[in-house]
Inverse folding.
């Protein structure tokens, strides 16, 4: 006798359910409970919102939080601005072999771990690094220049890390654009700007949103890049979470921060989707 | 000033690496003319029309629209618009936005663009479609939107790149007439490219037959059909029978071909080599069941009906005649003594030398 259809379906989705359940839902339930427990005496905890109250009362926390949000939006926008022409070139101008080679070039840096890539930027940007030495040799700088440990370095590193995740969905989206649509756009009298804004970008919108969502999420949750390139000026919100969990051993506080970060990125992604008129389902299909 | 033709190409060539896609093509399209370029795929007709539209630059030659050279003028500044093979309607815009797009690009104000769009939709028989999404349109409606999108700009010239290719047969027949009608009411010059001879013959004032980058013949549809200038045109335009053989006694204006079987076909044409091909249309062939029938036709062959290919008015018969080698295709008689002729019937087929074209092979 054949087992009922429902059983097959259950078996098929079981790994996904286990995966989501054990690695996403369970920890979040645990974190939610933890974040709502106040320490009233050593080793004594009670239900309360003190951890969330602490966040709003301590300016360092919410400033870091706001700073992370603003810089992440900036990084996403810069990544999009940089990736769009690249994707446009790969999708529209390059043909056959050239196309796959260019795509591979985008992929190669990702064979190396993120940490090593970030160290690469450090070698380039530090006081005794390549760029500094080059500037001195050219006579553009009189002494060693420190290019690390500022917001610029953090943004640079994050944009670099996000590029591939933006290029891939954009290439996918632009690849499916019928070349005759672009030609028709010009034929009917459109300028480059008109064709781009009325035909190419609207067509690529699902890819733009998919790439932006992924890059934004990765950026907000990034840890190594802001720490290494920003140093103590990095002030990324993930560092606060790390500090609470590891340095201060204050798990309830760290949990509250974790939840706030989740709320932040969800809210910004939601606003972004609303503004671009895209639905999450459509975006996911494209990405 | 004498009014210049709408389109004037002089010795236009296009070379891609070592392949000559368009080879020294010249032609003129007068105002209001429906001009078709007919050729098999890969003959260079698409390249030719893309050069007129401004998507390719010719390697040599001159293209003038209303007397003004358009060489070096980008596609968006040429007074001609194109209907693409895929139609290329913008899926991200409504029907009205598709039509207003060009007007807005040309600096027409929003209100005026909307008004002209509305009027254009009325004229192509799609009133009230402005807010419809492109995806909800039927094949024929999409076609009309694609043409309306061009015509609303009042171009000197509309280029059409096999726009009927994607439609089913019935709709294609209907759109042929509709296109011709639209062209006549707007009195805009159309340059239509197609590989479908029936489209070209039905709609055009003049047709250019293109092969391997060159124009073989330019003329009205009837002339192409009845007086093909080259062997390619004779074989490509319309249904035809073709036999190749040796040239026999060439005389001025007329010639005869001896087939491998030894029988001789007499026809019209000037040949100088010693191989030639003879062509005769299926409808030019007379049939009789009596072996002594058709006594006054020099080209006369006895055979047997091997197949009846019924296709309404285009029905034909295949006749196996031992002296001809390949089967002969003749129009199926649907009235008179031979109506209802069946497979296996012994017949005599004959035709005049005047109906036979002979070209060097």
């Amino acid at each position: 006798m054949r087992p009922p259809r429902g059983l097959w379906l259950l078996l098929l989705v079981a790994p996904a359910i286990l995966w989501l359940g054990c690695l996403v839902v369970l920890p979040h339930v645990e974190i939610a409970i933890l974040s709502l427990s106040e320490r009233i005496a050593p080793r004594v905890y009670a239900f309360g919102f003190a951890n969330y109250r602490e966040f709003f009362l301590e300016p360092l926390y919410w400033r870091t939080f706001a700073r992370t949000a603003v810089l992440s939006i900036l990084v996403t926008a810069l990544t999009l601005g940089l990736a769009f022409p690249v994707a446009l070139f790969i999708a529209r101008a390059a043909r056959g072999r050239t196309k796959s080679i260019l795509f591979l070039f985008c992929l190669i840096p990702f064979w190396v771990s993120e940490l090593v890539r970030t160290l690469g930027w450090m070698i380039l940007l530090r006081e005794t690094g390549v760029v500094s030495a080059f500037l001195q040799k050219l006579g553009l700088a009189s002494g060693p220049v420190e290019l690390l440990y500022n917001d610029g370095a953090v943004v640079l590193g994050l944009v670099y890390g996000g590029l591939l995740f933006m290029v891939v969905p954009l290439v996918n989206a632009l690849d499916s654009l019928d070349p005759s649509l672009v030609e028709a756009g010009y034929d009917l009298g459109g300028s480059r700007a008109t064709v781009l804004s009325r035909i190419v970008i609207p067509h690529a919108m699902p890819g733009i949103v998919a790439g932006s969502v992924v890059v934004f999420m990765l950026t907000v949750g990034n840890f190594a890049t802001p720490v290494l390139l920003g140093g103590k000026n990095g002030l990324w919100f993930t560092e606060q979470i790390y500090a609470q969990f590891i340095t201060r051993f204050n798990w309830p506080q760290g949990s509250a921060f974790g939840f706030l970060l989740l709320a932040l990125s969800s809210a910004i992604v939601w606003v972004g989707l609303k503004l671009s008129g895209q639905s999450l389902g459509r975006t996911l299909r494209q990405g | 000033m004498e009014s210049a033709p709408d389109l004037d190409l002089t010795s236009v060539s296009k070379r891609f690496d070592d392949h000559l896609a368009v080879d020294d093509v010249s032609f003129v399209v007068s105002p209001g003319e429906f001009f078709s370029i007919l050729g098999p795929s890969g003959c260079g007709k698409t390249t030719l029309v893309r050069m007129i539209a401004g998507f390719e630059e010719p390697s040599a030659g001159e293209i003038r629209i209303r007397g003004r050279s358009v060489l070096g003028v980008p596609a968006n500044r040429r007074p001609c618009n194109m209907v693409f093979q895929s139609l290329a309607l913008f899926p991200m815009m409504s029907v009205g936005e598709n039509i207003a797009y060009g007007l807005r690009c040309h600096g027409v104000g929003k209100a005026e663009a909307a008004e002209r769009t509305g009027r254009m939709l009325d004229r192509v028989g799609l009133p009230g479609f402005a807010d419809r999404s492109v995806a909800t349109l039927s094949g024929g409606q999409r076609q009309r939107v694609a043409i309306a999108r061009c015509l609303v700009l009042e171009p000197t010239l509309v280029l059409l790149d096999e726009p009927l290719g994607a439609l089913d047969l019935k709709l294609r027949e209907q759109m042929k007439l509709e296109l011709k009608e639209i062209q006549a009411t707007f009195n805009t010059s159309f340059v239509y490219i197609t590989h479908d001879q029936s489209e070209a013959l039905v709609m055009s004032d003049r047709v250019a037959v293109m092969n391997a980058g060159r124009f073989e013949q330019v003329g009205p549809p009837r002339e192409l059909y009845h007086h093909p200038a080259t062997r390619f045109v004779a074989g490509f335009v319309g249904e035809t029978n073709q036999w190749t053989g040796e040239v026999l006694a060439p005389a001025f204006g007329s010639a005869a071909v001896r087939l491998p079987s030894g029988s001789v076909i007499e026809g019209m044409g000037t040949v100088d080599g010693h191989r030639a091909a003879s062509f005769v249309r299926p409808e030019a062939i007379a049939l009789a069941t009596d072996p002594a029938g058709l006594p006054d036709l020099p080209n006369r062959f006895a055979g047997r009906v091997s197949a009846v290919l019924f296709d309404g008015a285009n029905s034909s018969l295949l006749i196996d005649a031992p002296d001809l080698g390949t089967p002969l295709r003749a129009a199926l008689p649907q009235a008179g003594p031979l109506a209802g002729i069946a497979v296996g019937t012994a017949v005599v087929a004959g035709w005049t030398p005047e109906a036979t074209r002979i070209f060097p092979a």
Q: What stands out?
A: The first helix of chain A runs from residue 5 to 35. The interface with chain B takes residues 178, 180-181, 183-191, 194, 198-199, 202-203 of chain A (CB under 8 Å). The domain at 48-286 of chain A is CATH 1.10.3720.10 (MetI-like fold).
